[in-house]
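Structure (tokenized):
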């Protein structure tokens, strides 16, 4: 059982340790407790998510994001609109592009007609389940 085993490691050592854990897991069960989602994506064959002491999901890693299909969106907005979006939606990522901002949003429904559904990641899944609920039923920004 490992609790946050790669926290504090530089990228080279994180990769080396992840590979070591993956090799060890061939012959035994390894339990990994971490908030470092990229480690889970590389190491785990099965994901078990708990919230408030209750198991809310146990699934193969390859199937984990299926539960939020159609709830992750990408949209480019004017920089003046950024505060409006960040106050309502969980923003998984933002990237400045001149006077615009490309946002990756997590929300139950399409934010507007310009938003495009994108493939969800494990990080999106974490934000979906552990973000704060907004007034309109979406997930508020936790970044």
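Design, position by position:
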């Amino acid at each position: 059982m490992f609790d946050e085993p790669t926290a504090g490691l530089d990228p080279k050592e994180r990769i080396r340790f992840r590979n070591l854990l993956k090799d060890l897991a061939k012959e035994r069960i390894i339990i990994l407790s971490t908030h470092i989602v990229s480690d889970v994506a590389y190491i785990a064959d099965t994901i078990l998510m708990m919230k408030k002491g209750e198991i809310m999901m146990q699934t193969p890693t390859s199937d984990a994001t299926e539960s939020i299909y159609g709830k992750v969106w990408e949209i480019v907005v004017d920089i003046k609109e950024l505060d409006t979006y960040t106050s309502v939606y969980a923003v998984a990522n933002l990237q400045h592009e001149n006077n615009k901002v490309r946002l990756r949003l997590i929300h139950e429904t399409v934010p507007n007609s310009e938003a495009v559904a994108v493939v969800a990641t494990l990080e999106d899944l974490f934000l979906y389940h552990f973000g704060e609920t907004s007034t309109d039923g979406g997930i508020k920004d936790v970044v």
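Reviewer-requested clarification: Residues 133-138 have pLDDT under 50 and may be disordered. Residues 15 and 22 are 10 Å apart (CA to CA).
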